[in-house]
């Protein structure tokens, strides 16, 4: 059973920065795609960013492109989401998700990930 644990959320003013972390209970993320999604009250779960663990290829949602950066570190097995120039509309619960065998056309959809963290709240004040 893969367990993912997010951390790093909090309250920040507009224009500020936060870094989220996603740590895994497994020995290696080899062959995994790790993604960040977010969900605000009343909204559907939205794709934020994803990274292929082996190739380090990264993918971003249009609303965060140029402001957020996803990266990974194998020691420990952690994926980060650096969020800069935060806006009030970035306010949401942010979830880390992971799975193997996620094809390119599917990585932006939350239904293609079996493993999820509990979420961390990010609140951006205006």
Task: Describe what you observe in this structure.
There is one protein chain. The chain has 126 residues and is mainly β. Helix content is 0%, strand content 51%. The protein has no helices and eleven strands. The strands form two sheets. Strands 2, 4, 5, 6, 9, 10 and 11 form a seven-stranded mixed beta sheet that branches. A four-stranded antiparallel beta sheet has the order 1-3-8-7, with no helix packed on it. Strand 5 and strand 6 (58-60) form a beta hairpin. It is globular. It starts with a strand and ends with a strand. The mean pLDDT is 95.
Give the secondary structure arrangement, pairings included.
Layout: E1 4-7, E2 10-13, E3 18-24, E4 32-39, E5 46-52, E6 58-60, E7 68-74, E8 77-83, E9 92-100, E10 115-116, E11 120-125
Parallel strand pairs: 2-11
Antiparallel strand pairs: 1-3, 3-8, 4-5, 4-9, 5-6, 7-8, 9-10, 9-11
């Amino acid at each position: 059973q893969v367990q993912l644990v997010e951390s790093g959320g909090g309250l920040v003013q507009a224009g500020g920065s936060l870094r989220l972390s996603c740590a895994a209970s497994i020995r290696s993320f080899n062959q995994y795609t790790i993604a960040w999604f977010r969900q605000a009250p009343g909204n559907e779960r939205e794709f934020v960013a994803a990274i292929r663990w082996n190739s380090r290829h990264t993918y971003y949602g249009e609303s965060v492109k140029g402001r957020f950066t996803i990266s990974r570190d194998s020691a420990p097995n952690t994926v980060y989401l650096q969020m800069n120039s935060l806006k009030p509309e970035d306010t949401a619960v942010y979830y880390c998700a992971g799975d193997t065998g996620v094809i390119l056309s599917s990585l932006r959809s939350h239904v293609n990930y079996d493993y999820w963290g509990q979420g961390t709240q990010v609140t951006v004040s205006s």
